[in-house]
Amino acid sequence: MKVTVENKKGLNKDLKIFIDKKTINSYMDEKYEEIKGTVNLKGFRPGKVPKEILKRQFGKAVFSEVLDKVLKDTSTKALEENKIKPAGQPKLDLKTYGEDKDLEYVLSVTELPKVEVKSIENIKFDQYTVKIDEKETDKRINDIAKNQPNFKEDPKAKAKNGDLVVFDYTATVDEKTFKGGEGKNTQLTLGKDLFLKGFDKQLIGVKKGDEKIVEAILPENFPEKELVNKKAKFNCKVTAVKNPEEVKINDDFAKNLGAKDLNDLKSLITKQINDEYKNSLDRLAKNQILKEIEKFKINEIPENLVEEEVKILSQGMSEEDAKKSRKNFEEVAKKRIKVGLVLNEFGEQNKIKVSEQELQTEVQKQIRMMPGQEKMVMEFYQKNPSALASLRGTVYEEKIINLIKDKAKSNKKEITKDEAEKILKQSQNQEFDNKNKIENKEEKKSSKNVAAKKPTDKKAKSKSPIKKTKKVSKK
């Protein structure tokens, strides 16, 4: 194989690749030997079909397969030997090819730019730890206790709002029973109106042993469609009235929540509150790092990557709106690509890889985020390799960011919960303001362009975005 590299312009290169017919023929012979053992032709024993017979019968198909393999092997080798990392899929132009002929082709490639990552160690970012006050932990535990009321039965009590009424019922519509019109040991906390609208109020004042007729309209989502919006009579037999009792926050309460004891529960809740803020503050630190990387100097961004990113940014937009936002999209695209190039180069230099175990751990994390739909999520990743590849990319980026945090200069700060909330709110407001500025900028550009247009101006002609490609020449 002979390779000649020609620099065309900037990052664009042409690799002229020549493979002599002797090499091509060796590939062909290898393929014929491979198929000889599998072909059954009348008059020949298996594995004994002469090559000339195979050539007449399968020559075109064999050459086509061999050509694909040779092009793949030699183009990959040519790029590796010349240390060229392509930005996107290279274009291939066949010049000469054919059975018993030399192969010559041109590989047009846009090379990834050289990226300097040493200055990553000079990046500065804020690394926060949140100190959770004991009062915050106690408040969270008290809130949990309020949402888990304890009830104690009072045989003589008359039900009031906040009490738990336990009852059996049979329901009728127009004096007729219906499917789903019976209930045993039904429990209702009065005042929450969670059963049927207005049902709770009619149970106020009942006590154990009472029978009460309650009337209510069956809702829109009632399973028996013919009964929707009809008035039903519920004959309720009250079996218990229970008064709410203040939950005692002690070791037993903690054990019911899965902790070893109250002290263990406090530790778990403190960690939970801390993690809630840590995740958000870590995202701020990551954004700071990415903003710093955006300032890195890269002499040239591959135009084909910019074009691909612009297409992604303008997905779902009308052609006119996409055209108006084109300049802004190009700026965003270049920043994203620059960050991606720097992170990828840093990852390669530090030999960062994502193991199958790490990938599966992330899949399990995604599954846990959608309780009740575990099977569907698992099948989604099994059937969509691109989604799994995207998830791998997310894990890869997180590993890179974590390594940058270790190597860069962190400004460590211990803050209170209130300070954390203030920082996060300021960040959200800043993002909102930046978004508005971009939108206002686009609106001004748009109105300016509209004012500048003249209906009679026919001089401006749009250039066709379709590039002409050379036809494959057969020689």
SSE diagram, text form:
Blueprint: E1 2-9, E2 12-19, H1 21-36, H2 51-81, E3 91-96, E4 103-110, E5 124-131, H3 134-146, E6 150-153, E7 164-173, E8 176-189, E9 211-217, E10 231-245, H4 251-256, H5 262-294, H6 303-313, H7 319-324, H8 326-349, H9 356-368, H10 374-383, H11 385-407, E11 409-416, H12 417-452
Parallel strand pairs: 5-11
Antiparallel strand pairs: 1-2, 2-4, 3-4, 6-10, 7-8, 7-10, 9-10
Helix pairs in contact: 1-2, 3-5, 5-12, 6-8, 8-11, 9-10, 9-11, 10-11
Q: Write the H/E string, N to C.
A: EEHHEEEHEEEEEHHHHHHHHEH
The first-level CATH class of the largest domain is given as Mainly Alpha
The major sheet is characterized as: 5 strands, antiparallel
Based on helices, strands and strand pairing, what is the structural class?
alpha+beta
Q: How much helical structure, as a percent, in the residues?
A: 40-55%
Low-confidence stretches: 446-475
Provide the β-strand percentage band. Answer: 15-25%
CATH fold-level label of the largest domain: Trigger factor, domain 2
Give the helix tally: 12
User: How many beta-strand elements?
Assistant: 11
The coarse overall form would be elongated
Oligomer: single chain
Q: Please identify, by name, the CATH architecture of the largest domain.
A: Orthogonal Bundle
Q: What is the CA–CA distance across the termini?
A: 19 Å
**Whole-number count of domains:** 3
Provide mean pLDDT, rounded: 85
Kindly list the characteristics that best describe this protein:
475 residues, alpha+beta, Alpha-Beta Plaits, Chitinase A, domain 3, Trigger factor, domain 2, 3 domains, five-stranded antiparallel beta sheet, four-stranded antiparallel beta sheet, 11 strands
